[in-house]
């Protein structure tokens, strides 16, 4: 073997080793450009020109993120009810709109499923209304900051939400880091003890552990950071949960990660086999069998509750996507 050939082979082996090491450690690989586009009803998010998601702040009872694409452009959350007639998708729980944040008891008001118990499809109900876009900055870590108001059916303010979303991508995944700052600026606010909440998403049927409510094509697996699988993960505390399954012969998944600084970390998870995943630090009665009201949390007048989450859209399953390693990297970065 000539010296030139030997050097070439050595360079290939070194590149392969470096690539494998990055995947094994799940270190972010910067370089993907994330572009935020402002529109009248949404902010679009593209990665190197390809659609990732849109933050939609009109036409719904709360802001939502939809659609949500894995690397390669594969959508990973349910389309219904935003889009109708998608083959294999169940038409249950119309308040499960891709990715969102609400809760079923806020000063006694139902922001989670208000139309199930409120004024019907068109009448006024408690809702989260968009106020402003405060920062919209593209880059390798694109930053979107918004302000919303949680109001009752008559439009009376309950609290103000300041949200920061950081969008980024590496070689194997796309992610959204979400910080929610909930300010009790209209009086004290009590988040009540109910399983109906809170920071949540609804996966597409292929990522569900089993078919239900008319869905078809389930091939998924639900696992949490404690190793509990499928139905066993419901109502349990964990640092993260992950749904993964096959779409067109290739495995994809979504992980939701809870930050150690959050209220009552590790949080409880309203994680269902039919594809709902919700981080909920308030539903202690339902999840743990504690007395009713044990999970109530009151933000005093003028006070603030801050919640932080990371959502990762990845290829492969939780182990292949190194979700536990990603949780460690993320939480170490945020603690500095």
CATH architecture: Distorted Sandwich
Secondary structure category:
mainly beta
Share of helix, binned = 10-25%
What's the CATH C level? Mainly Beta
Number of strands: 18
Write down the overall geometry: globular
Q: Which sequence of SSEs, written as H and E, runs from N to C?
A: HEEEEEHEEEEEEEEEEEHEEH
Strand order of the largest sheet: 6-7-8-9-18-14-13-12
Brief summary of the model shown:
This protein is mostly beta strands and about 325 residues long. Helices cover about 15% and strands about 35% of the residues.
How is this structure best described in words?
With 336 residues, the protein is mainly β. It has a single domain (35-335), classed as Beta-galactosidase, Chain A, domain 5 (Distorted Sandwich). The chain is 13% helix and 37% strand. Strands 6-7-8-9-18-14-13-12 form an 8-stranded antiparallel β-sheet, with helices on one face. A 4-stranded antiparallel β-sheet has the order 1-2-3-4, with no helix packed on it. Strand 6 and strand 7 (142-151) form a beta hairpin. The longest helix is centred in the first third of the chain and has 23 residues, at 3-25. The chain starts with a helix and ends with a helix. The model is unreliable at 1-29 (pLDDT under 50).
């Amino acid at each position: 073997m000539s010296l030139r050939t030997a050097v070439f082979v050595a360079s290939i082996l070194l590149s392969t080793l470096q690539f494998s090491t990055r995947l094994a450690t799940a270190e972010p690989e910067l370089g993907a450009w994330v572009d935020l586009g402002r529109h009248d009803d949404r902010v679009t998010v593209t990665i190197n020109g390809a659609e990732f998601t849109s933050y939609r702040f009109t036409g719904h009872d709360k802001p939502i993120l939809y659609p949500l694409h894995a690397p390669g452009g594969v959508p990973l959350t349910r389309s219904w009810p935003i889009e109708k007639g998608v083959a294999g998708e169940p038409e249950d729980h119309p308040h499960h709109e891709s990715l969102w944040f609400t809760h079923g008891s806020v000063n006694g008001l139902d922001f989670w499923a208000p139309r199930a118990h409120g004024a019907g499809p068109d009448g006024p109900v408690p809702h989260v209304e968009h106020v402003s876009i405060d920062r919209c900055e593209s880059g390798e870590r694109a930053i979107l900051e918004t302000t919303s108001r949680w109001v009752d059916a008559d439009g009376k303010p309950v609290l103000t939400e300041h949200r920061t979303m950081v969008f980024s991508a590496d070689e194997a995944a796309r992610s959204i880091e979400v910080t929610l700052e909930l300010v009790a600026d209209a009086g004290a606010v009590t988040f009540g003890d109910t399983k109906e909440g809170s920071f949540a998403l609804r996966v597409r049927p292929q990522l569900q552990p089993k078919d239900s409510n008319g869905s078809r094509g389930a091939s998924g697996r639900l696992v949490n950071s404690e190793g509990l699988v499928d139905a066993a993960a419901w109502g349990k505390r964990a640092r993260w949960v992950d749904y993964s399954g096959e779409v067109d012969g290739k495995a994809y998944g979504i992980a939701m990660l809870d930050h150690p600084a959050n209220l009552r970390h590790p949080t409880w998870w309203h994680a269902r086999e039919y594809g709902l995943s919700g981080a909920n630090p308030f539903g202690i009665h339902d999840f743990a069998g504690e007395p009713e009201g044990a999970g109530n949390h009151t933000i005093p007048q003028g006070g603030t509750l801050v919640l932080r989450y990371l959502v990762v859209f990845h290829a492969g399953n939780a182990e292949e996507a190194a979700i536990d390693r990603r949780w460690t990297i993320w939480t170490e970065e945020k603690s500095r």
